[in-house]
Amino acid sequence: MIADMPKPSKKATVDELRGGLAKLGLDTKGKKETLWRRLLTAFHRAKSTPSPETEAGAASQVEKTQEVHGPTRKKWGKQPYRSFLCFDVEATCSGGKDFHYPNEIIEFPVVLLQWVEADDDDVDTTSPSSSTSDTASTSSSRKRLKRVDTFHSYVRPTWRPELGEFCTNLTGITQDMVDSAPTFPEMLVQLEKWLDGHGLRDDDYLIDALWVTDGPWDLRDFIPKQLHISPLSPPRYPRYFLGPYLNIKQAVQTVLSEEYRRAEYARTHPDNPPNQRALSRIGTGRYLSRAEREGGKGPRFYGTIPQMLEMLQLGEFEGRRHSGLDDAGNVARILIALAEKDVLIEPNGRLHHHKNARKWPWMAERGVVVWEEWMRGVGPAGDKDGKEGEGSQDKDKAGEEKEGEGVAVVEERIEGEEVVGTLRENGEGTSSSGTRRAETGMRVGTGTGTRMGT
What we know:
RNA-mediated gene silencing; Nucleotidyltransferase, domain 5; cytoplasm; SAP_dom; exonuclease; 18 strands
């Protein structure tokens, strides 16, 4: 059993490492360092995934406090989280490809999914759409993932309060909608009241809940931008926006890639019994290696929300694309579909302490935006750090990308491992695990800002 395997040693021989990988049904090709890291990753993944014996009693045990979460969490059946906050903001926008732009959030929707008992009277098991749109059951835990509530608010921008025609045409959000809406700090008061009403917040941390987003951009980029433009009083960075989260794009790719791999192995090895990996439960937190993601063996399983719906055979996108509420609702449909596969729903990304939040060169003191000055090459004190300097736009146009100049470093932690990559201004994101291009789905952001996503 993998749970009983010793921690791989660097002193192990190549044959010993390959033997250990072969027992787990893993790739045995590569140099010694590669083999050791592959086996070590499998070891840590096995230690972090409860065995069937451990899972049976998990519902009555209190899980240890996570690195970022303050309160302790309980296991919900065989799932580590009880609640899922499907979340997709819309921001001020016009055509262009400048990821530095000070986007302001203008729509903030959250669709709440929770595990409920399978025989819950509130679960409509007779509805034709309930199995794919509003609820999902896991046979092993006899629970269902159900859409239980929605938070929705438009948000009034304050730095550039007037919406452009492009933005309105793209999102369907009109000037009247935002003029009568609360500002971002006012909206957060309503959000926190809603979170507290569902018992999802304790000491400003999420409790037994996980954000679910279509990519990393909403939490990683738009929230810190908005908190600088519209600082809270007293100043703070809400801790419920930090910690682990689920990137639904990566989750779908992980689950479908693993299903495809297992099916292909069974097809090409009909006489072989299932190996340990084939018998293990698929989890959304598993990290796909570059070879697995871009090896060219089978579909890539990475796409926009409509493409993910198609891959999961859920039909067409419900509602209006680039409506934050409809985007969040369709993300919820995708998560419910994964739950129907009895997948272990766990985080695949993490946002660390707010002091590590991303910074942009137009950020002066709190609440002050010096976009025009930076565009003219006379930006704030941040220029002294060499992040952006005079003439940087010309360099961008020429396609020159140097470290610390036109490149924002992205830090994400997946399965306890930090993956450092870059998000480039030319619309292409790269990381140590592969290349993410804008054509997989690009949502245009404000001014000259571009939001990638749905």
